[in-house]
Write a structure and sequence with these properties.
Layout: H1 6-20, E1 22-23, H2 37-40, H3 55-62, E2 71-73, H4 91-101, E3 107-111, H5 118-127, E4 130-135, H6 141-148, H7 152-167, E5 171-177, H8 185-197, E6 202-206, H9 222-237, E7 244-247, E8 260-261, H10 266-270, E9 277-281, H11 289-296, E10 300-308, E11 311-319, E12 327-328, H12 335-347, E13 351-356, H13 358-370, E14 378-382, H14 400-413, H15 415-418, E15 421-426, H16 445-450, E16 453-456
Parallel strand pairs: 1-2, 2-3, 3-4, 4-5, 5-6, 6-7, 13-14, 13-15, 15-16
Antiparallel strand pairs: 8-12, 9-10, 10-11
Helix pairs in contact: 1-3, 3-4, 8-9
Length: 457
């Protein structure tokens, strides 16, 4: 149950629009996904679940959106739990208003697919530059029932909607939340083949963030589960044309490897293929995957030094507009965020502890090494999530209490090292746009508890 009042909810909506380009329109959903915290009603999470958003509040949020980057609808934030966009009674009015205010802005809609009728697809096609992300999970109705609670008619609606999307001019991708023990490699393959046959732009696969229905011992070795899934995806990728991307926070390195390439896109025509390593773009060496992806996605001419097997080639092409190269890469770390970390550490007098979850520890350690920050100046510290056996530990579910416990344990381990610490750096994923964790504790509370400077990046 939410403890937010109407004013606070409106402020969160505006901030989400201004800072993340996300437009929240409803928290209602007609699916019952076993990995959804909203449906499971975790008692230790405070989230906004207030039904359909008022059209006036939505219009105010639309005014805060940046038309130069995709406007996301149906994407949940840490405390703003998003539902099924098509359920909002004014859904079409909202889309039309976006077009009135931002005529050329790209729009991304995440949906369970229940309302992908020919009429709705034609409407969105008429709106122009709309990208659909369909949470399919499986092309088999019995699997969708187990994972999403869909009865046969709802599953048929989604499957038929994807077929209609494949026949339309709208670009779309399929999303699969690979719940262990329910979605195996054969089921992943069948769903991937279905999406491939129906012209999906790409397939995004991820592990569930949380589920009260997953046994405690299912993830005894989280990294092992991730590696097994990655291996399965590699096998499936060789059998289809549609690129597959594994969305995960468990990446351990910053090597800019190409995960996939959209066929007949500019980068594909230039010769970029899955497995290629990007060494440089227009003469600049990328810090990581995200840095390389951004460089490769600029509008205009691109010249990339690419390592394929043991040879290095220089490939050239031109992007008619931004993000149209067709290259797909796993998200690892924002180069801007890395720079903010470097500045925060260098400006600090003393040692900085960068606190993070199990999933983020490896990549954060790699970033600190890449930035050539000495351990005397900065050190990554793993933070455990203690409250719920069913949750996978990610930065999104860490609280002020978790961060304080990790700091206290570090202090107990070495008083000498602890005396050098003057700053704690926390990941922004743990907080809403107001700076509160899901227990409604301000990150500044940690300063009063520890006596240290606290920085959120």
């Amino acid at each position: 149950m939410s403890i937010y009042n109407t004013e606070a909810i409106s402020r969160l909506m505006r901030n989400s629009a201004a800072e993340k380009n996300q437009l929240s329109i409803t928290t209602l959903c007609d699916s019952k996904c076993i990995y959804c915290g909203q449906k499971q009603d975790f008692t230790d999470f405070q989230s906004v679940r207030n039904g359909h958003k008022d059209i006036t509040a939505i219009r105010n949020s639309i005014a805060q959106l940046d038309p130069e980057i995709p406007i996301s609808i149906g994407q949940s934030d840490i405390l703003v739990t998003e539902g099924e966009p098509f359920l909002h009674p004014d859904f079409r009015k909202i889309i039309r208003h976006i077009r009135d205010i931002h005529p050329a802005a790209p729009i991304e809609i995440t949906t369970n697919g229940h309302f992908l009728t020919a009429d709705n697809i034609n409407f969105l096609n008429d709106m122009g530059d709309v990208y659909i992300k369909v949470i399919i999970n499986s092309s088999e109705s019995y699997i969708r029932k187990s994972v999403m609670g869909d009865h046969e008619l709802l599953s048929e609606n989604t499957i038929n909607g994807i077929i209609l999307l494949g026949e339309s001019e709208i670009t779309y991708s399929g999303i699969i939340i690979a719940v262990p023990e329910l979605i195996d490699e054969e089921q992943l393959l069948q769903t991937a083949l279905f999406l491939d046959a129906n012209r999906a732009d790409k397939i995004e696969i991820s592990l569930p963030l949380c589920s009260a229905f997953i046994e405690r011992n299912l993830f005894p070795e989280l990294r092992k589960v991730y590696c097994e899934l990655r291996s399965k995806i590699k096998n499936i990728s060789s059998r289809i044309n549609t690129p597959i991307n594994l969305a995960s926070e468990l990446i351990q390195d910053l090597l800019p490897v190409v995960t996939g390439v959209v066929k007949n896109a500019p980068a594909w025509d230039a010769g970029i293929r899955t497995g290629d390593i990007i060494l440089a773009v227009n003469g600049k060496i990328p810090l990581c995957r995200e840095d390389a992806f951004n460089m490769l996605s600029i509008p205009g001419p691109v010249e990339a030094a690419v390592k394929c097997d043991e040879s290095v080639e220089t490939l050239k092409w031109s992007n008619p507009y931004q993000y149209c190269s067709g290259i797909i890469m796993e998200n690892d770390f924002s180069p801007n965020r890395a720079e903010y970390i470097r500045m925060a550490v260098e400006k600090n007098k003393g040692k900085s502890l960068l606190l993070c979850s199990e999933t983020g520890f490896g990549i954060l350690s790699a970033v600190l090494k890449k930035l050539k920050l000495k351990q005397d100046d900065a050190q990554a510290v793993l933070v455990s999530c203690e409250r719920s056996d069913s949750l996978i530990a990610t930065d999104k579910i860490l609280s002020i209490d978790d961060y304080e416990n990790a700091y206290r344990m570090f202090m107990a381990d070495s008083v000498e090292k602890a005396n050098q610490i003057t700053q704690l750096i926390l990941p922004q994923e743990s907080f809403d746009s107001e700076g509160y964790d899901y227990n409604m504790l301000d990150f500044m509370d940690l300063e009063s508890r520890t006596g240290l400077k606290v920085t959120v990046i």
